[in-house]
Design brief:
The chain is mainly beta. The chain is 0% helix and 32% strand. Strands 1-2-3-4-5-6-7-8-9-10-11-12 form a twelve-stranded antiparallel beta sheet, with no helix packed on it. The N and C termini lie far apart (82 Å).
Length: 198
């Protein structure tokens, strides 16, 4: 979390009229420096925005959880989004980095096992298939991606290896005692001759 001196905020806005400001903006020389927004009304900021010397957005932080910890950071260059950093586990630190080019994610890196080293790489090569990356892993643990381990997630997907003890078995309908049996009963809604023989 990058500091934002809210005690010197020159603008405060009470969006719901409850007497507490949900939006606080710090300015210097008329330009915005940073802004904090309380999205859920608990008097704690959930969204932080920071600006460069030209007043353009340079950084935005999101606190998605109830503990106010920052779980996503978006970085901007001249107001254009260039990188998204995320904390996807409860470890309390960034573990995923998305690099943005031409308003789309071009590649991603992730520390999947939480040891502080990147061990997954995702490449989004086809702009027409933004949800179909090629994923690479570090199979030998040397801290580098293994080119031979690339998997096109839309071409093949991930199929876990079959294990006998966890394999699903469908019901066996060949046993006589497992076959459905028709039962005739007297019904109140059908009247005479419904569901039974006289």
């Amino acid at each position: 979390h990058e500091p934002c001196p809210l005690e010197s905020a020159t603008e405060r806005f009470d969006a719901d009229g409850d007497g507490r400001a949900e939006i606080a903006t710090v300015r210097e020389g008329g330009r915005p420096v940073c802004q904090a927004i309380d999205l859920n009304g608990d008097s704690v900021a959930d969204l932080w925005t920071y600006y460069d010397e030209q007043g353009r957005m340079r950084r935005r932080e999101y606190a998605y959880g109830r503990d106010s910890a920052i779980t996503e950071v978006r970085l901007f260059s001249a107001g254009v989004l260039t990188e998204i950093q995320q904390a996807t586990t409860l470890a309390g630190h960034i573990d995923t980095w998305h690099h943005v080019a031409d308003k789309r994610i071009s590649r991603s890196e992730r520390d999947a096992d939480g040891d502080g080293r990147i061990d997954e790489w995702w490449e989004y090569r086809d702009p027409a298939r933004p949800d179909c990356p090629t994923m690479y892993g570090d199979l030998d643990g040397d801290g580098r991606r293994d080119a031979r381990a690339g998997v096109d997630l839309c071409a093949t997907g991930y199929v876990p290896p079959a294990r006998e003890e966890f394999r699903y078995r469908s019901p066996d309908f060949q046993r006589p005692d497992s076959l459905p049996t028709e039962v005739e009963e007297r019904g109140e809604l059908g009247g005479e001759g419904a569901g039974h023989d006289e």
